[in-house]
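User: Please fill in residues for this 276-position structure.
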């Protein structure tokens, strides 16, 4: 695998607590990697640190040979795009202008936004199915519409890696599938995609690999079929679930049946063997 982004022994501390604890993973060219796990597992903190938004206490994140922590913003923007969970924007620019801002790292001069940037922005908005929003002020858009605009902006950057934090959270069913297929299309163009997902069935269907986090640590990583097992879901999510092959999607389908009230055995989570 040609790894575009490497995370090695990454530790992120917030308020003195290790929220990300010795995490290592790769994101390769042409693949979608799903970051999954229960609430508080460290997924959002991890992806923010991968994007250079949070400093590491130790360990490192590298884009090829470039250390993310020591890269210049323009240099980083040519290689990596990050879409946060919260897409609220403090300005009232038209969506087309916001998407065109994704081209700033490609500009060779200071001044008005070049016409070429608007052409790329229009194409990106059309690709995500939001061409009709081009003239709309972003502050007046719904959460789902803002998510599409942010995705278009990331695509306009033409990065090598795209990091996304729950991109389907504010979307209806139709747009959820649309966005996930767009991520597959971006991977098919040779980009590396890492995406935080809560829907395990989306992760199973659309991701090449998944990384299961719990307590800030990697509990399992590998192909969805190998990671999403009934025993592992019981150990991390504390639910009784069935995992079966879905004839329609040809992926594993997770059905949560009920919560498990008993506590896991002492050290149980850490005893889950990591798959490589």
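Assistant: Residues filled in for all 276 positions:
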């Amino acid at each position: 695998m040609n790894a575009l982004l490497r995370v090695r022994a990454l530790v992120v501390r917030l308020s003195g607590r290790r929220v990300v604890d010795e995490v290592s993973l790769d994101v390769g060219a042409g693949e979608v990697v799903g970051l999954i796990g229960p609430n508080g597992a460290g997924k959002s903190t991890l992806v923010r640190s991968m994007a250079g938004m949070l400093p590491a206490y130790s360990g490192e994140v590298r884009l090829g040979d470039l250390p993310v922590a020591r890269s210049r913003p323009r240099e980083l923007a040519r290689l990596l795009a990050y879409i946060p969970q919260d897409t609220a924007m403090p300005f009232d620019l038209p969506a087309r202008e916001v998407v065109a801002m994704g081209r700033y790292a490609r500009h060779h001069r200071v001044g008005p936004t070049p016409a070429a940037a608007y052409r790329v922005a229009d194409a990106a908005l059309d690709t995500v199915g939001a061409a009709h929003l081009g003239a709309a002020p972003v502050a007046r858009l719904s959460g789902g519409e803002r998510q599409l605009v942010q995705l278009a902006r990331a695509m306009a950057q033409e990065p090598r890696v795209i990091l996304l934090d729950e991109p389907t959270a504010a979307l209806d069913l139709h747009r959820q599938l649309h966005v996930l297929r767009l991520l597959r299309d971006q991977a098919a163009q040779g980009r590396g995609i890492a995406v935080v997902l809560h829907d395990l069935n989306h992760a199973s269907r659309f991701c090449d690999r998944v990384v299961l986090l719990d307590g800030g640590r990697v509990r399992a990583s590998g192909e969805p079929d190998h990671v999403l097992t009934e025993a592992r879901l019981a150990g991390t999510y504390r639910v009784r679930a069935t995992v079966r092959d879905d004839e329609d999607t040809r992926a594993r389908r997770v059905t949560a049946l009920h919560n498990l009230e008993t506590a896991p055995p002492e050290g149980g989570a850490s005893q889950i063997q990591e798959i490589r």
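For context: The chain has one domain: 3-265.
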